[in-house]
Amino acid sequence: MYRMILALLAASCARAGWVEYNFGPFRVVSDAGDKPARERLNEMEQLRHALGVLLGQDSLGVGGPQEKQLKTVWPIDLVLFSSAKEYAAHAPNQPMIAGGSAMLAAWSADKLLPGDFLRELARTLIDDNSGRMPPVVETALCDLFSTIDVKGTKVLLGAPLPAGQLPPERLHEWAKIQLLATHPDYSGKIRVYLNNLQGLGDLSLAARNAYGLTPKQLDQKIDDYLRAGNFEAAPVDGEALNPNTDFIEKPVSKEAISQLMTELAAGGKDFPPDSPRGLAAKNTRPSLELAIKANPRWAEPHVKLAALETDPAAKVKDLKDATTLEPRNPAYWQELAKAQMEAHLYADADKSWAAAMRAAPTQAERARIEKTRLDMDAERAAYEAAEKKRIADEQAAELQRIKDAAAAEVHAAEAAANQKLGGVRPGERPVEWWDDPPGEKLSGTLARVDCLAGGPMRLTIDIDGGGTIRLLIRDPNRLTVHSAEGVKFACGAARPAKKIRVIYNVRADAKYNTVGDAAMVEFP
């Protein structure tokens, strides 16, 4: 029934005469004639340009390079009605509401754009383009641009706000930004001031770098400025465009108007199923992938995909895409940090936690993020301790396997010798007949000799029966070597490989990557 009512309401508004005007991310859809539509579109575009100048991302003129112009995640559509009465029948309950494929607003053609809409437009452009600044500064910028006055390419900024509109603290911050943006003693450095705030959010650093003042000194100037109360709008550079020729104009079909009115009436709660927001609302992998294609600048579908993902690496990738698209969102950075910790990518997680702290708008939010991080660091420490133990256990098991293999080789040789000599009678203990030094014994094939810095040598031996062992000769001059042919060690791979018998003492050395020290070497 609700959808039916919306459709009937939209159909009543769909009639001939609707025209749309486009420029940059903005679209004005109007049935109120050509002039007011072009004027409202010019107001929006001049605000975008002037704000871009302050943020250091100013547009470079019609038809020029676009990379430094402020952009928006969503197109912004303004529906301009021919009268206040008609507007009142379709007025949304907020300055902007979400539509399926754009942000939607509405207004009456016989009035300049209202301050609430201009304030929200500035907020959207700041959110979609700038680094995080202190909330009071961002709010003050929005208040400043809520009174922008545009006539063609002549733009005034900083007109006094209506008395009583802002509480005292907010009025003080507005006065600061108004002074810095409009007074010739300060306006030339406001870009430096705002750029410093976007980097670190440090008011003291920004005031010193831009104006050579401490925050206290700057606030004192603002207090004096407020008491004087001489606020005047100042001209700023307007964008070089002609509203009569530069805005693209084309008629709008009745079906498109019906859909637009339906979305306005829905109040941001219901979207066409094939629109980006409608697709994302379905929350299936195919629909989310279509939503990403429909609006590649939108981060939310990537976050929803990550929530559906079971593969840790794929989850991290989806969340990285989201933070790239919306770097000011601390919640997205936190989700990425948690996913990286679950994937044991701790160095990457540290960077994401730091980014979450930078994106947090308040000190309270930063403190909450820090607590979450510390709680998760305890889990990280437990994992790393378990991982170290696992590696140590594996190394110990490998060393024991080598020792067991060497012992088995010696026992096999003893058994063969006993058998050749007639064996040992039951209960008899074999008589040791050699004078070799004590230690573990093994035999195999010498594969390589590494000559190490300072004189030591490292032997790599392929053990008879399987396995490889590395032994260290700490002082080659003191090693006992038995060889009928006078064999000497040569650095590098053994050419040809030679049979070798070794007695060694178990003594692992992590520096040289060896498990024992050779005490005697024999080349049979």
Characteristic terms for this protein:
OB fold (Dihydrolipoamide Acetyltransferase, E2P); Serine Threonine Protein Phosphatase 5, Tetratricopeptide repeat; 3 domains; disordered N terminus; 17 helices; six-stranded mixed beta sheet; 15 strands; alpha+beta; 524 residues; five-stranded mixed barrel
Biggest beta-sheet profile: 6 strands, mixed
Helix content: 40-55%
Unreliable residue stretches: 1-16, 59-66
Number of domains: 3
Outline of this structure?
With 524 residues, this protein is an alpha+beta fold. The protein is built from 17 helices and 15 strands.
Would you mind describing this structure in some detail?
This protein is an alpha+beta fold and 524 residues long. The protein has three domains: 2-248, no CATH class; 272-381, Alpha Horseshoe (Serine Threonine Protein Phosphatase 5, Tetratricopeptide repeat), CATH 1.25.40.10; 440-523, OB fold (Dihydrolipoamide Acetyltransferase, E2P) (Beta Barrel). It has helices spanning 2-13, 34-55, 84-90, 115-129, 135-145, 168-182, 190-200, 203-211, 215-228, 254-266, 276-282, 285-294, 300-308, 312-325, 330-342, 346-359, 363-420; strands at 19-23, 26-30, 76-81, 97-98, 103-108, 149-151, 154-157, 234-236, 248-251, 440-451, 457-463, 468-473, 480-483, 492-509, 514-523. It has a six-stranded mixed beta sheet. It has a five-stranded mixed barrel with strand order 10-11-12-15-14. A hairpin with a 5-residue loop joins β10 (440-451) and β11 (457-463).
